[in-house]
Backbone:
């Protein structure tokens, strides 16, 4: 008998209890030497330091795990309200709340090492407020064993001094070059691009010229939601970063633009993110030119999202007759081409 | 089976080892007063056994049709025939009207276990797109939730009387707490307040009117069923004691002797200002209090860092208030939602 799609828990019963098979070799990707079993990652700041979601998702099935931003000193973050939901999106202004570099290395990284032994690569996201700050944090973290890559957060929209590095191409080139120079060569450097610029190809090119091995894009859009009764912004920080399905078309566009204008010819892979919730969303990013994929906001709704997306990708590839995900990446043909 | 709360002096941090995602089916979804609904859900057997829960704990309930993703997958999956009566498949769920994105946190108002497994009950009030979707749920509809989450109210050793103070949507955990009170052999008094009588999310006991002078009476079904009395207050005086819920609590505390106060714990959940006022009343009377706090949250599991509340912390302060109280941000979802009323920086 055919199962009705609506009504009694159709999708969830299939995916929540049965032990899923390991991901197909077709999903393996090589991001400038960072070899992943599949393209799925967690977006920084949406999966903590790994253990928080352990019961709700099999982290070992990720291609890579990306940590919450780490700063040299611990940060308590912004006042509440820190989040508000908007139509199809989520606005957040956490303010880089984190335990700080030393506690991260002592308490959080050892747990991530255990995860790495099970498969996923470990990517540590680093934020800072000066070139020296970035350089010292990154050098320190890159000297630790089992850190595969560092993702540079140069575009946090929720701290006073966060945006400058991500929006000024010259400054970005400098910070990327200095960080790259100070890091162990084995550790890949990912630069996370801000969408809050007039021409993202300028910052993308600056990051590549500075020595970025991989680009990840995009960070959140600076945005505001207003309480019309109080005539005040809904967030205590006034503005926040918009994420979720609402920004997906914006993100796909920017990934495509950077892929064609900068990344493809430079041979720099892109990790695409922004509103990925279903595998269909992920395919859009792949076609636009992303080789890696990160899930952020959707993790809050269903921590198993990356696993479900990977399963969907596998089926899509099979249906398309593709032996490898590489046959899909960047193959979007524009009208008129 | 419901676990019995451990005897301890302050709210404990739970081990989150058992929280999972569960499919549920709606058993009933009845309006209980203007704006409020009581939603009872049956945990699907296919989801496995729902872990033990305690009063104060909450769930993160999906406030949109859980099958949307599956519909999309089916489109590109095996070729399917359409059969009459089958709903249309959504190709663009994001265009199908306003949908709640994030889950919404709800305190459990009750839980039961029988031969058919576990049922869970919450009380919800239509305030936005997510709760509007909830209000349209009918028996047999599917939903899904993550839980159980958060810590719980403690029944400390040496105490034997609970003042259960619930304002508005703060009532549900109090209903659940009555069961624990009954089981532990405590005495309990409910305090129920609202702006006006038709906003009181309670079942009235037929023939027993709430006292207008604030004396407890067996007038509220959710408390009376365990043999407990309740004090009802309405701001507009349409039912029970005219005035705020704090007036009812203040009068009751004034009637207790020193020894009785030492045996008493005030449990409170509701609007922030109301909890603040009640916690202050308790502190002034030398009575312990436990407050179930609320804060906007995305995940409910400690990753998004959204639901911060300020808690007094002399060992590891992050900042100090204007009047010199050292505090630290804690998360309502995993450090709470229940905190000792005396250490909350209101």
Residues:
């Amino acid at each position: 008998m055919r199962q009705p799609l609506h009504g009694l828990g159709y999708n969830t019963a299939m995916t929540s209890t049965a032990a899923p098979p390991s991901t197909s070799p077709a999903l393996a990707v090589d991001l400038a030497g960072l070899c992943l079993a599949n393209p799925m990652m967690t977006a920084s700041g949406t999966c903590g330091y790994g253990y928080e979601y352990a019961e709700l998702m099999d982290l070992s099935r990720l291609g890579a795990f990306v940590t919450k931003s780490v700063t040299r000193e611990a940060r308590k973050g912004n006042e509440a309200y820190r989040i508000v939901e908007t139509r199809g999106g989520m606005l957040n202004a956490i303010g880089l709340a984190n335990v700080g570099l030393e506690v991260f290395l002592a308490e959080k990284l050892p747990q991530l090492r255990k995860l790495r032994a099970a498969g996923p690569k470990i990517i540590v996201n680093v934020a800072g407020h000066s070139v020296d700050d970035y350089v010292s944090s990154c050098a320190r973290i890159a000297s630790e064993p089992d850190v595969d890559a560092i993702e540079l957060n140069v575009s946090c929209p929720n701290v006073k001094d966060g945006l400058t590095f991500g929006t000024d191409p010259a400054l970005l080139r400098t910070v990327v070059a200095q960080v790259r120079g100070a890091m162990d060569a084995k550790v890949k450097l990912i630069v996370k691009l801000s969408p809050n610029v007039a021409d993202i190809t300028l910052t993308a090119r600056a990051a590549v010229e500075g020595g970025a091995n991989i680009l990840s894009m995009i960070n959140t859009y600076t945005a505001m939601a207003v309480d019309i009764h109080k005539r005040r912004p809904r967030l205590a920080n006034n503005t926040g970063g918009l994420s979720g399905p609402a920004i997906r078309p914006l993100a796909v566009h920017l990934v495509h633009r950077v892929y064609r204008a900068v990344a493809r010819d430079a041979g720099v892979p892109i990790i695409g993110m922004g509103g990925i919730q279903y595998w269909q969303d992920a395919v859009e990013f792949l076609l636009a030119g992303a080789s890696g994929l990160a899930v952020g906001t959707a993790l809050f709704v269903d921590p198993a999202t990356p696993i479900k997306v990977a399963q969907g990708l596998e089926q899509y590839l099979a249906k398309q007759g593709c032996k490898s995900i590489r046959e899909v990446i960047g193959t979007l043909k524009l009208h008129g081409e | 089976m419901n676990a019995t709360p451990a005897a301890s002096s302050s709210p404990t941090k739970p081990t989150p080892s058992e929280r999972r995602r569960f499919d549920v089916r709606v058993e009933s979804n009845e309006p209980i007063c203007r704006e409020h609904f009581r939603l009872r859900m049956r945990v699907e057997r296919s989801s496995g056994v729902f872990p033990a829960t305690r009063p104060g704990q909450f769930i993160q309930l999906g406030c949109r049709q859980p099958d949307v993703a599956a519909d999309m997958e089916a489109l590109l999956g095996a070729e399917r025939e359409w059969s009459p009566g089958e709903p249309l498949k959504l190709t663009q769920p994001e265009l199908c009207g306003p949908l709640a994105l994030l889950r919404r946190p709800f305190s459990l108002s009750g839980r039961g276990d029988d031969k058919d497994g576990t049922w869970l009950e919450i009380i919800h009030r239509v305030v936005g797109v997510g709760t509007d979707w909830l209000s349209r749920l009918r028996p047999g509809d599917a939903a899904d939730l993550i839980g159980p989450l958060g810590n719980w109210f403690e029944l400390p050793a040496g105490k034997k009387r609970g003042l259960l103070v619930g304002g508005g949507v703060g009532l549900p955990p109090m209903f659940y707490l009555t069961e624990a009170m009954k089981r532990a052999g405590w005495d309990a008094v409910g305090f129920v307040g609202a702006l006006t009588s038709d906003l009181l999310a309670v079942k009235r006991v037929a023939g027993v009117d709430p006292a207008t002078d604030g004396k407890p009476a067996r007038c509220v079904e959710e408390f009376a069923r365990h043999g407990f009395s309740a004090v009802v207050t309405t701001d507009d005086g349409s039912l029970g004691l005219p005035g705020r819920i704090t007036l009812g609590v203040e009068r009751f505390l004034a009637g207790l002797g020193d020894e009785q106060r030492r045996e008493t714990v005030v449990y409170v959940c509701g609007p922030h200002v109301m909890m603040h006022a009640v916690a202050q009343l308790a502190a002034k009377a030398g009575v312990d209090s436990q407050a179930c706090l609320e804060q906007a949250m995305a995940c409910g599991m400690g990753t998004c860092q959204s639901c911060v509340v300020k808690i007094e912390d002399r060992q590891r302060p992050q900042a100090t208030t204007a009047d010199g109280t050292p505090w630290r941000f804690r998360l309502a979802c995993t450090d709470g939602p229940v905190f000792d009323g005396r250490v909350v920086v209101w």
